[in-house]
Amino acid sequence: MNLSVTPTSAVSELAPTPKKAWVAPGIKPITMGSLNKFGNRNHEALGYVDQIEGHAINALFERYGSPLFVTSETRLRQNQQRLLQAFESRYPKVVHGWSYKTNYTSALCQILHEEGSWAEVVSAFEYEKARHLGVPGNRIIYNGPHKTPASLKQAIAEGARIHLDNFQELERVAELAQAAGSVACVALRLNFDTGFSDPWSRFGFNLETGEALEAVHQILAHPSLKLVGLHNHIGTFVLDTRAYQAQVRILCEFMERIEREFDLALEYLDIGGGFASQNALQGIYLPPEQVVPS
Question: What is the pLDDT of residues 267-278, one digit of tens each?
């Protein structure tokens, strides 16, 4: 490789590079008719919008400033009701847990709790927030790979459902429950390959290697622990419905196996969330109404 070096004396004689003219930043609309990650939407047909549910946008800007995020309470309630109806029309007992990590704006969480949602939290901060919003401990699902000892102690005392993520956490919860003279209701977070989605192996106990079955043995060996459920989350914005079909089948098979072998009855299966919605923000190249399952 040949390198050429310009002498210092020659550099000083070079004319300075002219500065480019400053151009104000701006937003350009997507050119319709060409492929793009936002889908083939006819923005011209949408027309100019100066109000959101009867509230003038300019007035909102004047009051709150810009940029501004606006959430429709009406649409939020309708979405929640539609989601529950989809499940309740097929299964006799359904509980929806709102994932605080998705959006823990207090007003938004409160609306969903009014619609019947439990709180699904992944940190001490989120647990305290749910309690502050009036959610009782027995309507909180405590998830996540890192739970503080203090928050676990509180969750045990208040009857929250604690989803165990690893063997260290299993031992910690058992010790805290034993010290408190109580029994902690726990579920196992599992990870496995559905065959139709990328397997998430970062969290929980692996099913194929026998980790999950070993975790069941260890839970049953602790009188201060009660196994009440199984949990799995296959990913976010999964479009192939066969992945969910395989997920539930695998969960049911494991549930039936441990109920048969250990003579116990589980209370619930948690199938996670992240279901594909009717938005065009996930890099899909066709309109959501064409590719997102009903």
Answer: 999 999 888 888
Q: Classify burial at 228, counting beta carbons within 10 Å of its beta carbon; exposed 0-12, middle 13-18, buried 19 or more.
A: middle
Say if residues 269 and 228 touch (Cβ distance below 8 Å): no
Is the whole-model pTM more than 0.85?
Answer: no
How far apart CA 128 and CA 246 sit, in angstroms, is 35
Q: Cα angle vertex 190, ends 185, 191, to 5°?
A: 165
At 173-232, the pLDDT tens digits run: 999 999 999 999 999 999 999 999 888 888 999 999 999 999 999 999 999 999 999 999
Q: CA separation (Å) from 177 to 86, 131, 182, 254?
A: 37, 20, 5, 26
Render 221-249 in DSSP notation, one character per residue: T-TTEEEEEEE----SS---HHHHHHHHH
Angle, helices 106-114 vs 73-88, to 10°: value is 40
